[in-house]
Structures are given as C-alpha cells and as structure tokens.
C-alpha cells in the first residue's frame, strides 16, 4: 500500500508540476506575465524537485521579460553562490569553461541593463578570461558586449581598440555559422559606434550593409525561417530609425518604425510586449510630427535594446526580447 501511495504521489506531483508550468506558458501567450511569474513563484516550493530547475529558469526569464533586472540578478547571484550552475546554463553546452563564462556573460548583461556598469565590466571580464583559456571563438561576443558597455560610458578609444580586435578574431573563425553571426554583430556595433560619435553618414552606411549580412546558415531554436529573418530585419530597421532620429529626420524615422511595428506584429503578435513597445515608439514619433517639434522622448531602445537575449539561435536559454507589459 505504501508503495502504491508513493507511486500515486509521484504521478500526481509530476502531473501537477507540469500542469502549472503549462498554465504559466498559457498566461504568457496572452501577455499575462505578472500572473505567470506569481504562479510559478508560489508553486515552486511545492513541486517535484525534478521540475524545480525548469521552474527556476522560467521565473528568471519572466523577470527579464518584465524588466525586473534586479530580481534576475538576485536569482543569478543566489544560484552561483550555491553552485547550482546547471539552472543558469544555456541550452547548448560548449565546454565547462565556456559554459561558466556564458553565465558570467549573461549576468554582466543584466547588470548592464540595470545600469550597474562596474559589475557589468567585472563579470564580462570573468567571462573573457574563461573563454580565452578555453581558446574559444565565443569570446568575441564578450568583446562586443564590453564594447556596448564602453559606448554607454563614452569610452570611444576603448571601443575602437575592441573593434580592431573583434574584426581580427572574426577573420580567423573557421566555423561558417559562428563567423556570419559575429560579422553581423560586429557590423551592427560599428554602426552604433558611428551613431554615438555622431558620424551619421558612416552609421547609416554600416546599417544598410547589415541587410546583406543577415545570417543564413543557422536557425533559432523553435523558430521559423521567416521569424528568423524578421528578427534580424527588426534590429536593422531599429538601428536606421535611431540614426534618422538623431539627424531629426522624423518623417524617415516614422517610416522605419512603422515597418518595424508591422514586422513585430507579424512575428510576435499584437498581444506581445514587443509590439506594444513598437507601437509606443511609433506614437511618440507621431506626437513629435504633429507638434512639429524635435523635442521627442524616443523609446526605440525599449523596443528591442540590442535584442540580445533573443539569441536562442546561437546558444542562449534566455528570453527573447525586452519591453514593458
């Protein structure tokens, strides 16, 4: 009898654990991210231990999607201090040093998004050191993130040095999938560098080159080819719109944001936070045009700020995009 009871309990808790996880996914589908994370937080202590890793990963993803970066950082720090690194590992394992480096990379990104630059730099350097000792091409993405951190601090000479290093490393890559992915990222970074240094012509040239640099040799996990192409096109349109905004070309920027909004609706649906954010950006431009003023608080950065964590296409287990609900 005791064996039967134990078996029944095991089946019941396994079923209920999966059940609540599926309910959370359904809530996310309808844009109810706050309800989804609350549900997972409340059921986490009660579920079968075999499911707790899945729940923890999902909770962290939802913190990120809701822009609750401090909560995500706290979760990362907790699992690192308790040596529960499996929860934080990306979907595709490379080798132990690179896997651990990727955890510090992701933590650095969260600190960067949370405007804690010192800790962002500290963690990205940990990742760089691990990947250099592993002689891994994945160190390039670390240098790219470090470049964006330095750009935010207006450390342009450091970024120039990193760009030289990045492009040298890319030339030496043998794997065509990793090579074309990094070529795209490096070109986007160059466009952003010229935008920040107010060389708008070069920023625009680099941004337009991105259309012929969209990676074609790999697909994101669980993503159709059209969505894959859309993902990169959204990044390009967003970059071009930002350049036009800086040059006060609001009519041109409006066209780019309208294209972005339409593409996001097609790719992620009009209930998605990404679409709502794009709509907000579009309305801001409309407001600026109607008032005939250049005093605009533009929110394209909220729309997709680097879209970095969407990159399940390469090796991440993190959430796709950022935006407020």
Sheet with the most strands? none
Rg over CA atoms, rounded to whole Å, is: 21 Å
Distance between the termini: 50 Å
- Percent in strands: under 5%
Which ranges are low-confidence, i.e. pLDDT below 50, for 5 or more consecutive residues? 3-15, 219-223, 292-325
Could you report the average pLDDT, rounded to the nearest whole number?
A: 79
Shape: globular
Structural class: mainly alpha
Distinct helical segment count:
14
Keywords:
mainly alpha; disordered C terminus; 325 residues; disordered N terminus; 14 helices
Give a structural overview.
There is one protein chain. Helix content is 71%, strand content 0%. The chain has 14 helices and no strands. Helix 10 (200-209) packs antiparallel against helix 11 (225-246).
List the helices and strands and how they pair.
Blueprint: H1 2-29, H2 33-43, H3 49-65, H4 69-81, H5 96-113, H6 117-133, H7 139-152, H8 156-171, H9 176-196, H10 200-209, H11 225-246, H12 250-268, H13 273-291, H14 300-304
Helix pairs in contact: 1-2, 1-3, 2-3, 3-4, 4-5, 5-6, 6-7, 7-8, 7-9, 8-9, 9-10, 9-11, 10-11, 11-12, 12-13
What's a concise summary of this model?
71% of the residues lie in helices and 0% in strands. It contains 14 helices and no strands.
């Amino acid at each position: 009898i005791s064996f039967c009871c134990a078996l029944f309990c095991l089946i019941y808790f396994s079923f209920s654990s999966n059940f609540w996880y599926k309910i959370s996914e359904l809530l996310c589908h309808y844009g109810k991210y706050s309800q989804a994370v609350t549900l997972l937080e409340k059921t986490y202590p009660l579920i079968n231990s075999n499911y707790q890793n899945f729940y923890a990963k999902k909770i962290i993803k939802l913190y990120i999607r809701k822009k609750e970066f401090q909560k995500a950082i706290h979760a990362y720090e907790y699992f690192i201090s308790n040596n529960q690194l499996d929860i934080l590992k990306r979907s595709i394992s490379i080798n132990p040093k690179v896997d651990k480096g990727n955890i510090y990379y992701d933590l650095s990104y969260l600190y960067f998004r949370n405007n804690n630059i010192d800790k962002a730099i500290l963690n990205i350097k940990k990742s760089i050191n691990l990947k250099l000792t592993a002689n891994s091409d994945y160190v390039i993405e670390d240098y790219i993130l470090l470049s964006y951190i330095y750009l935010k601090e207006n450390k342009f000479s450091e970024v120039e040095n990193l760009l030289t290093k990045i492009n040298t490393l890319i030339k030496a890559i043998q794997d065509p999938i990793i090579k074309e992915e990094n070529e795209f990222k490096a070109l986007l970074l160059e466009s952003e560098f010229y935008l920040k240094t107010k060389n708008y012509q070069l920023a625009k040239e680099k941004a337009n080159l991105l259309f012929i640099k969209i990676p074609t040799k790999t697909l994101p996990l669980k993503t159709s080819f059209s969505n894959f192409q859309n993902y990169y096109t959204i990044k390009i349109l967003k970059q071009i719109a930002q350049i036009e905004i800086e040059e006060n070309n609001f009519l041109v920027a409006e066209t780019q944001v309208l294209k972005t909004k339409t593409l996001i609706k097609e790719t992620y649906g009009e209930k998605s936070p990404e679409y709502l954010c794009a709509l907000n950006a579009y309305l801001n431009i409309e407001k600026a045009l109607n008032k005939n003023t250049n005093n605009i608080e533009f929110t394209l950065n909220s729309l997709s700020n680097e879209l970095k964590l969407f990159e399940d296409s390469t090796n991440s287990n993190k959430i796709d995009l950022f935006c407020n609900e």
